[in-house]
Automatic annotation (TrEMBL):
Gene3D superfamilies: Vaccinia Virus protein VP39. SUPFAM superfamilies: S-adenosyl-L-methionine-dependent methyltransferases. The keyword Transport does not apply. InterPro entries: RNMT_CmcI, SAM-dependent_MTases_sf. Keywords: Methyltransferase, Transferase. The keyword Methyltransferase applies. The lineage of its organism: Bacteria, Pseudomonadati, Bacteroidota, Cytophagia, Cytophagales. Pfam families: RMNT_CmcI. This is Cephalosporin hydroxylase family protein. It comes from Algoriphagus marincola.
Length: 205
């Protein structure tokens, strides 16, 4: 007879999240964060989402579909490779950039009024810190700079990533008082029950 487990581990959720697909496209996010994202989009109503780290494009597709339902908005998704699925490439709300975030011209965001930025690339401390410093000025007041995968610390992998996103966030916040960690999203399902630990940064001024 089936016996229900009384608990499950972070490692099991981590293993599962690598297998998630959205409309058949791999989409590497923690289940809790999908729910938060759709609420954040409803709250912010962005007309531009910049995503650093496309991979196969599942997250860009998910976000683009949410924008499509609202009838407004574009995604600029940036990677260093071109591995996204055809359904992603052909989505009218998705614009793909393949030369890495350093080559992204910030002027491409001119003319958009509500901008949300997601950093989901290599997760190394240095890369995360540099990327969020470049893109933070684009984030609109009352919108978010979302820094993915601080969870690597809880998974015991921070050293591998030079301290990872959490270290980058801490240092970034020291010099950027216009952002604060938004407890509403961080603690939505329980304290830091997200893979984006410390990573929902709200622009308050
Ligand atoms: C964790 S995956 C992105 C996952 C995707 N956002 C999703 O949720 O399905 C990280 C991606 O970042 C890309 N990447 C690494 N360095 C980058 C850089 N300098 N600029 C842009 N993308 C980069 C990698 O090639 C990889 O595809």
């Amino acid at each position: 007879m089936f016996k229900r487990k009384k608990s499950f581990s972070l490692e099991e959720i981590d293993n599962g999240h690598y297998k998630v697909t959205y409309r058949g496209v791999p989409c590497v996010k923690c289940p809790f964060d999908y729910v938060l994202y759709q609420m954040i989009i409803e709250e912010v109503k962005p007309d531009l989402i910049i995503e650093i780290g496309t991979n196969k494009g599942g997250s860009a597709l998910y976000l683009a579909d949410l924008l499509e339902v609202r009838g407004k908005g574009q995604i600029h998704t940036i990677d260093i490779t071109d591995e996204s699925f055809e359904i992603v490439k052909s989505h009218p709300r998705i614009n793909l950039f393949h030369n890495g975030w350093k080559d992204y011209d910030l002027n491409l965001a001119a003319g958009f009024s509500k901008i949300l930025v997601i950093e989901d690339s290599s997760h190394s401390y240095r890369n995360t810190f540099d990327a969020i410093n470049k893109f933070a000025p684009l984030v609109s007041k009352n919108s978010y700079l979302i820094v993915e995968d601080g969870i690597i610390n809880d998974l015991g992998r921070a050293k591998e990533f030079g301290g990872g996103p959490e270290k980058a966030i801490r240092e970034f916040l020291n010099n950027n008082s216009q952002f604060l960690i938004c407890d509403k999203w961080i603690n939505f399902f329980g304290k830091n029950a997200t893979f984006n630990t410390m990573g929902y940064l709200k622009r308050i001024k």
